[in-house]
Every structure is written in C-alpha cells, then in structure tokens.
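OP here, attaching both records as promised.
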Amino acid sequence: MTRYTPLDFVALMEKHGIPYHEKTLSQLFCDRSAKDILALLIDECREVQARIVTGCEVSEVRHAGCFTVETNLGDFVAPALVIATGGLSIPKLGATDLGYRIAKQFGIRIVPCRPALVPLTFGPADRRTYCELAGVALDVTASTADGQFREKMLITHRGLSGPAILQISSYWRTGEEIVTDLAPGVDLPADAVLLKEALHARWPHRFLQRWLAANGFPNDWRGLSKRDLAALSSAAHAWRVLPQGTEGFEKAEVTAGGIDTDEISSQTMQARRVPGLYFIGEVLDVTGHLGGFNFQWAWSSGHAAGVAV
C-alpha cells in the first residue's frame, strides 16, 4: 500500500476557507460537514469551466483510436478517458464495480478487493461475552503481523470498532488474530492491590469484570499468586482476539485492493498498456490511513492525470 501526506489537501481547504482540526497522528477532520468538501470540488470545477453531467448511466466503453462512452444521455467521445469511479465501499451512496469492469475489459490486472477501515465482528462466543458492553471504549494498541496502531477501541453490538480497529482492519486477514495491548505504555505492578488499582484506573469497571471472568481470572484478587499476577499482566498486554469477519463494504470507509499499481504510470496515472486510459483515486490499489489520506490520494492522482491529459 502506498503512503503519502495531506499537505496539498490542507492548502486546498485553506484556499476555500474550510475550517478543520487535527486529531492524533495528523488526522484531519472538517469542523462542520462533508458538504464543505463537495462545495470545494464544485467550485474548483467551475473555476476551470469543467462540465458536470449527472444522472448519466454508462452502458459500454469502446476504444478505436478514440474512446467512446455509451450512456443513457448519448455517446461521449474523447482521445483520453479518466476512470475515477471509486471503490466498492458504501454501496448505498452509489458505489459500483464499473471501474474494475473497464479495467478487465482492457486486460488490466486487478488485486482482489476487500473492505478496509472497517469495523470487525466477533464470533458467537466473543459476541456473547463482550457485546453487552457496546459503547465501552478503551485506549489500546492493536497489532497484526503487518501493522500496529495506538488509538481508541470501541466495543459494538457485533464486535469491535474505533480508530485503532479501523486502522488495523486494513492489515487484517481472515483467520488472523489481532493482538491488543489493553494497557499500552504501562508497566503493570506485580502487587495484587496495585495491579487492581492500575486496571481500574484504565478500564471501565464493566469491562474489567467481564474480561477477568472471560480470561479465567477470579474477582477475588487476594487469592492471586505471583504466577497468576504475571499471567494477568501478560494477558492485559496481549489480549488475543480472533475476529469472525468485517462489517463489509456497507460499513467500510475505503476499499483495499483494486487496479494493480504496476499497471499504471506513477507520474501520469496512465495505463501502461492502453495509451489514453487513466485511473485515479480509490479504484487503484492504494489505501491510506484515517484522517484525510485517502482524500489526498484522490486529489494527487487526479492532479497527475489532469496535468498529463
């Protein structure tokens, strides 16, 4: 997955007077509404006299010297075609697989798509144990073999969400455990009373009681041996969760996978084997973190293609 920074996007927001704030790890959020971003895009299009056509359903794309796009509003013909159809995330907003179908039509390789930045679901046993605690949040470090994030974790009615889980979901694969440090950066004491106080200070009481019982630790801390205390501390720093799956594209903020970037020029976004055909944004196999990075990729790749065209 390719990484990038949101500096150019910041300049664009400031140009249009859109207030924003920065959260942890340089994540950027609008102070008001996503409608501000929509207005920004429309204003930018007007500035360059771009024509926006809506209610236009594409039925076929042909290439014979020029590109012809057949639609319910007639044919559009041009020497270059830029595919900016996005991924599969949030289909109720109109997401489709059109971009991938066009790529396949021209023999362009596609990395299998999957939901990313998405809540994870528990299996039946963990759901019975923890989902009554829906709404409980903890500061954690969530890890897989390929990634690690320290942010908030939220228990939901079906599993886990919150920034730490959304971030790690982009690296998680079905059948893989997620290791969660429930006391990141804390050296838990070996004394029973002090350990109890330390966990009470960090964890909501309901979660603490449920977690102790689920992991085989008694509520009577006085009966814990030194070995038990060491095991409890170790488990707190490495709570292993085996998600059953994800909430799917319906809840995913982005799509991982897509058009193989090896098929595309990194300077122009043009398909290497089809001159005049360009792919930008989420339809490509590029996935960013939370906080404006996926927007930044859309702007940057679009700018590169626009300059080339």
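Record two, same layout:
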Amino acid sequence: MTREVPVHDYMSPHICTVAPHESLEAAAEPLSRSDTSCLVVMEDDRVVGLLTRSDLVDEADPAGDTLLPADPAPIASRMSRGVVQVDAATSVADACRTMIEREVHQVVVVEGGRPVGILSRWDAIGAARDLRLETPIGELTTPVSFILGSDEPVGTARAFLEAADVGTILVMDGRFPVGVFGKREAIRARDMQPGAAVAGSMNRAVLVLPADLPLHHAAAQMMATGAHLVVVLREGLQAGVVTATNVAELLSGLPRLALS
C-alpha cells in the first residue's frame, strides 16, 4: 500500500536555501526551527550541498564557553556534497528505503530537475498515521542509547550527541521521562553555558505509550504533539523507544537496523 503513496504528498514544500559562502553562524537560526530539517545549498541555480543540524553540532568545540561558538567559516566547509535526491513521484516506501540505505535523515525532492521539497524521516510518521498501520509499537522499539538526569549539564548532553552520533537523548527526572535533548535543542541552546542544567533547554514533548498500541495511533499523537520520541511501556516497564527512524524502517520494508 505504501508504494501507492508519493513523497509529494508528505514532503515539506518549505525549502530554506543558502549560498556556500554564507557563514555557519547565520545557518544556526533557521536550523533551530522545527520546520527546517536542513538547508539546501545553492550555487548558480544548482543544488551543491546540504547543511544539517549534525553538520553544526558534531563539529562544535566542547571546550568553548558556549555550546556553539560564533563560527565565521563558510557553509561550504561543512556541508554534505553528496545530496540524495528523489523524484516527487517516488513512493514513500522507496524514499524511506533510500534514507535508511544511504544513512541520511532527509532527501531533496525534485520535479523536472528542480528542488520542490524536503522529505525527512519525520515525514514517515505522517504516512504511517494516514495509512492506519496496525503494527504494535512494541514491535518497533530500540534500546535507549543515552539517558540523562534533568539536572545534568547541557554540555554533557551535547557531548553525548557528538561522541555517539545519536539523534536524541532521553531526559529523566528519577523514574519519569520528562523530555528529550536532540541536535535541534543543542542549536537552540547555543548561547547557554555548558554547565547549565539540561532541563532548561530540553524539549518537553515526549510520549509514554503502551507496547500494544497500533502505530497509527502513536503516529497521530507524535504529529499532534511534535514528540520525536515515544517511550514504550510493556507491563509497566520501559521496553525501549520509538523514533522516526523506526517508523521509516518499517515503511521501507528493510530488515530492522539498530539506528536512532
């Protein structure tokens, strides 16, 4: 059924473009927004690269006084040049397969050779909701890679994101999930001191749902709340988490991968 759903129906038509000579400092603000997963780097009306949140966060200096020091270096110095593109008529399933196989979190959607949108792994959640996929979310879970206490330093959270190349850290207050800290939050917290508590910059949109809940219900709640992570409970105990990557894997039809 997913082969009949084109990416055009789920892509974001919002494309934020930048030039390769612009500074990385100028790229931080748009990448901190929830509606911008990447910046498309254009030169002479051609797509020459992508700049993602990882390109900013993974190269930041953890010894600095702020999380992301002002960086006058050009975007071209960190952008990814191997831009993965799919046609607007490509199915969601094939696009998800491409993202998983190429280990990218978004693809540029083109029509007639011209970029018309961005499809990210997050957009797979909308497709899972609309297709009313009945797979219990307990079958999609992966272990939690990193957990931080809400009073631990935000600098430690950013270091985890860099060292382990994970997308999201679960923040706990004792036994209770209270938020997440990902690369978007790291960029938003770029002016905070590394010693500040992560609770001050985390995203509080996190869901705790039972393992037998059908995916389409969980996907609908993720879309409605903006939660990028679901903590899955089985018999009252934490059984793992579900992220957009897990949903994209399911739609792709590929064997399960240990990705976050």
